[in-house]
Amino acid sequence: MAVNMKPLHKIKYGLFSVAVLILILTLYAGIGGNLPPAPGGAPAPAGAPDGTQGENKPPVGTKQAAGANQAGGANQAGGANQAGGAGTPAAGGVPKVYMTADISPEGLTAAYEALGASPQGRVAVKISTGEPPSSNYLRPELIKDLTQSLGATIVECNTAYGGKRASNAMHLQVAEDHGFTAIAEFDLQDADGSLSIPVEGGEILTENFVGANFPNYDCYVVLSHFKGHQMAGYGGAIKNISIGIASAQGKSWIHSGGKSKSGLSGDQDSFLKAMAEAGKSVADYLNGSLIYINVMNRLSVDCDCNGRPAEPDMHDIGILASFDPVALDKACVDLVEAAPDGASLVKRIKSKNGMLTIEHAAKIGLGSMEYELIDIDA
User: What CATH number does the domain containing 345 carry?
Assistant: First the structure.
């Protein structure tokens, strides 16, 4: 009887195919499953030694994608301590605040250099141009050398309360009259309007309004005249990155606790917390690419937005610098409280509950109320 062999051929062919497939899989697993790289090579994995996504942090002035910086607890300043250099605290440490009693161009440069910062890209120096006729703003003679050494542009925004700096034309004239346009480029950042940036983790604000030109810079050197303030209690680094960098509309937004883009009305505590939250939005947006310097001279109880401030009745203290705005402002307040002639300014700060701004800023991760004060004159 003849036997039909076709089915057997099919079975043998099928078994042979399975055996070949098993052999190929075995050989592939034995070599770890590594296939040749595609033309041009494959990207290094996160954490690779070449630093593609590894432990190398960007120097000051290098931005990362939004959300890259983490608050890192009470001792981390929302990215501010990512700046690198001598001011970065070690794990478990506290921010360093450097201080000199030398209030001069040389002293300002020394305080800056103590941080060991290395700004990259376009650098902005944020100041207050000062309300005429006789406010205590930082003079061009003091900031000129540092500003020019950085190749920086001086930046400011319009006011929300009237005065001589409430419109583009008038404010640009004040900048010229006060000597700032003679020492560097000057950018009135909200001359062309506002830009909304997000506020993360706030109790009062969900957005903040800065000048439209704010994103044009990679690093901000925040030069603040520390003094009293008739509404906030005191003005320093936190105020300079919140009210100072806010557009005219943004200033009203902060003052009103996120309720209005005109005028200065609002609940006091909401205003103080909103300043801290607006400041954090700026630090977050820049991924901590900010350097903070407070100059403690002409310590009036009134702000530089007051054209006729009260005459100071306490001595000048010095210049302080840090990568952490909360630690910096807290150190300045502590120095005023310790001063034998600081009673008027202490009273002004307490009368407006000014410490709430520092406390809230620490709570939301902008920085630390703990710090190490280092005398660079010693």
Answer: 3.40.50.11440
